[in-house]
Each structure stands twice: as structure tokens, then as C-alpha cells.
């Protein structure tokens, strides 16, 4: 924010950039795709869903709605802060790199701006400490990303894959998968290799988004799965439109990018043919996977949420208090769970 005050970007240009996106320059589309993956991060969709279960609430219609409402407020606040930070970063970068008073070295940095050169943008406020504090900020952001990825991996292993591992082994496995590949690339390719890895990994995250987003949209829009907590028709329509746009952007970039790679490569015709067959087969499998998720029908109801339906409440009252809490909760192990409550807590 302090740097934004010093850079003084044109407010009209900032607002126009927010609502009229433009892709200029070589590789701008790929960077936009990677930014999408880095902002949304498909594994965090699983993590956010699991964190709602950590609230100490009665398993009732009112309790579950209350937990979802408070977590929506928390998530909205966090995402708004992240949005403001990104607006500040991009606005400062644009204002400084378009300034006529830049020296020759900073002009060269702006021509190919990456994480190795971006610290000079903070020089107006931080002076010679800009590179050191920028490095600390990168370390903090890396820790945050690794922690969320590790937690999400643990929830997926327990709740979806049903992998029964000892806590120390599960923690070591998830942390190793999060850290070791990046460490190897950084040691081999140096800081420039690490910067390229960030972009490539973010693009892969964007391509993975449909496989987390489509089930989430289908589950939350399904009366069979969600019961009384199903999304409204208007909310379902808006989320499906946004999800479809994200999938269309990814598919468009994947196909056009691969075609450009084939057309501009210097390989022999035979190699291009084999590479094209292999690549388009992979794209076909990718599209088939998305189509399967979209068209697959929800047939089984979620037993925990089904208990909040009126007919299930009556059955629960008849069977007694223990039937609710006899359900397995091993997918959210080590998290605070609601205390046992009587049938009166059910609405």
C-alpha cells in the first residue's frame, strides 16, 4: 500500500484493467492461466471444505448453516485481502515500469520481469533493504503454500483415498511430496529454474481445476447429496457459468498452445506426426475425464447430511441419540468435533 502511494498509478487505468482484461505480449495467455491456477489452487477447494467440519457445532440444519455462513465470511475476507494485494502488486509494477525516469538497469529488468528482478519495485519505500525483505516475503508465501498443500493432501488421503497411515508417516510423505521436487529443481536450475517451475506448476494447477471444481459444483447443487443445504438455482447457475468459463479457457489454451508448438518446432515431419498423435490423444483423455465428471449422475445420498432431512430426523429420534454419532469421522482425524448433543438440537 505504501509503494502504491509512491508509484501513483493512473486510477482510471487501474479500474479499466480490473474490468476490461487484456492479454498483451508474448506468453501473456500462459501467464494468465498460471495466475488463475495460483489464485484458486484446486487442492484448496478440498481443504476449505474440510475446515468447515472443524467448527464445534451440533450436526443439525441450523448448526451446519451457521458453520457455512461464518466460514464464508472468513473466506471472503481472506480472498478480499489477497485481491487487494494482487491489485497493488500489478498496479505498482505497471506504474513503475512505464515511468519515464527509470534508469537503464531497471528498464532492462522491466523487459523481462520475474521474481529474481522484481525487488527493485520496492526501492522507493524500502531502499537497499528491498531485496532482503522481498526474499523474506517470498519465503513466507512459499511456507503458506506448502502448508495448505500438505493439509489438503492429508485430507484427500484420509477422506478420499482411505489411506490408513501412521501420523508421522503421513506427515513425512505429504511434506516430502510438497518440498522435494521444488528443492531438486532449485538445486539444478538455480533461481531462474525455480521461477520457471512456479509458472509451470501454476499452469498445471489451472489444468487440474475442472477435476476439483466440477465435483464441487455437482455435489453442492445436488439435492441428493446436500439435502436441505443444496445451492439455490440462481447460485448454481452463476457458479456453473464461472466454472464453464474456466474450463473453456483451459481447453482453448491447451489446444492452441499445442498446435503452436507443433507448427513452430524444428522437428522432422515424422516426429511431428507422432508427437501430434500422442499430444492430441492426451487432450482427448483430458476432455473425456471432464465430460465424465459433468455427465456422471449423483445416485447416493450423503448419510451425514441426510440426517438433517425431516424424515431422517424422525427416524433419528426413534432410533435414539447414538445413531448420529456412530458414523465414522476418520476423514477429519485430529480436528475438533462437535460434542454429543441430544435430539432436541436437531431442527
Describe the structure.
By secondary structure, the chain is mainly α. The protein has a domain of 122 residues. The chain is 73% helix and 0% strand. The chain has 15 helices and no strands. α4 packs across α8 and α4 crosses α9. The longest helix is centred in the middle third of the chain and has 54 residues. It is globular, with a radius of gyration of 24 Å. The C terminus is likely disordered.
Poorly predicted runs of 5 or more residues: 311-347
Q: Helix tally?
A: 15
Radius of gyration: 24 Å
Largest sheet: number of strands, sense, barrel closure: none
**Structural class by SSE content:** mainly alpha
> How many angstroms does the end-to-end distance come to?
47 Å
> Element order, helices and strands?
HHHHHHHHHHHHHHH
Query: Helical content, roughly?
Result: over 70%
Oligomer state equals: single chain
Mean pLDDT equals 77
Bulk shape: globular
- Record field, number of beta strands: 0
Portion of residues in beta strands equals under 5%
Question: How would you summarize this macromolecular structure in one to three sentences?
Answer:
By secondary structure, the chain is an all-alpha fold.
What topology does this entry show?
Blueprint: H1 2-7, H2 11-19, H3 28-40, H4 42-52, H5 61-97, H6 104-111, H7 123-126, H8 130-159, H9 167-220, H10 223-226, H11 233-264, H12 269-295, H13 303-306, H14 310-319, H15 322-325
Pfam families: Nramp (PF01566)
Organism: Lotus japonicus (Lotus corniculatus var. japonicus)
GO molecular function: cadmium ion transmembrane transporter activity; manganese ion transmembrane transporter activity
Amino acid at each position: 500500500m505504501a509503494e502504491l502511494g509512491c508509484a501513483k498509478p493512473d486510477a482510471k487505468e487501474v479500474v479499466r484493467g480490473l474490468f476490461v482484461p487484456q492479454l498483451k505480449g508474448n506468453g501473456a495467455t500462459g501467464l494468465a492461466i498460471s495466475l488463475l491456477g495460483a489464485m484458486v489452487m484446486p487442492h484448496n477447494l478440498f481443504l476449505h471444505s474440510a475446515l468447515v467440519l472443524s467448527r464445534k457445532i451440533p450436526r443439525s440444519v441450523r448448526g451446519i448453516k451457521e458453520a457455512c455462513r461464518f466460514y464464508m465470511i472468513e473466506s471472503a475476507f481472506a480472498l478480499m485481502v489477497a485481491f487487494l494485494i494482487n491489485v497493488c502488486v500489478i498496479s505498482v509494477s505497471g506504474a513503475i515500469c512505464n515511468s519515464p525516469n527509470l534508469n537503464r538497469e531497471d528498464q532492462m529488468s522491466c523487459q523481462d520481469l520475474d521474481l529474481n528482478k522484481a525487488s527493485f519495485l520496492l526501492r522507493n519505500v524500502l531502499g537497499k533493504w528491498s531485496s532482503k525483505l522481498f526474499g523474506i516475503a517470498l519465503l513466507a508465501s512459499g511456507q503458506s503454500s506448502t502448508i495448505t498443500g500438505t493439509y489438503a493432501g492429508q485430507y484427500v488421503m484420509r477422506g478420499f483415498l482411505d489411506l490408513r497411515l501412521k501420523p508421522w508417516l503421513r506427515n513425512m510423505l505429504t511434506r516430502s511430496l510438497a518440498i522435494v521436487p521444488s528443492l531438486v529443481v532449485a538445486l539444478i536450475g538455480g533461481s531462474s529454474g525455480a521461477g520457471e517451475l512456479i509458472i509451470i506448476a501454476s499452469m498445471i494447477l489451472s489444468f487440474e481445476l475442472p477435476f476439483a471444481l466440477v465435483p464441487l459444483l455437482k455435489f453442492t447443487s445436488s439435492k441428493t447429496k446436500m439435502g436441505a443445504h443444496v445451492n439455490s438455482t440462481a447460485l448454481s447457475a452463476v457458479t456453473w457459468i464461472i466454472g464453464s468459463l474456466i474450463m473453456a479457457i483451459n481447453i482453448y489454451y491447451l489446444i492452441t498452445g499445442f498446435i503452436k508448438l507443433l507448427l513452430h518446432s524444428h522437428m522432422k515431419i515424422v516426429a511431428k506426426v507422432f508427437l501430434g498423435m500422442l499430444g492430441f490423444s492426451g487432450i482427448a483423455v483430458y476432455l473425456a475425464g471432464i465430460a465424465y465428471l459433468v455427465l456422471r449422475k449423483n445416485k447416493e445420498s450423503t448419510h451425514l447430511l441426510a440426517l438433517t432431512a425431516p424424515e431422517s430426523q424422525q427416524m433419528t429420534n426413534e432410533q435414539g441419540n447414538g445413531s448420529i454419532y456412530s458414523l465414522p469421522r476418520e476423514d477429519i482425524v485430529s480436528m475438533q468435533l462437535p460434542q454429543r448433543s441430544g435430539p432436541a438440537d436437531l431442527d
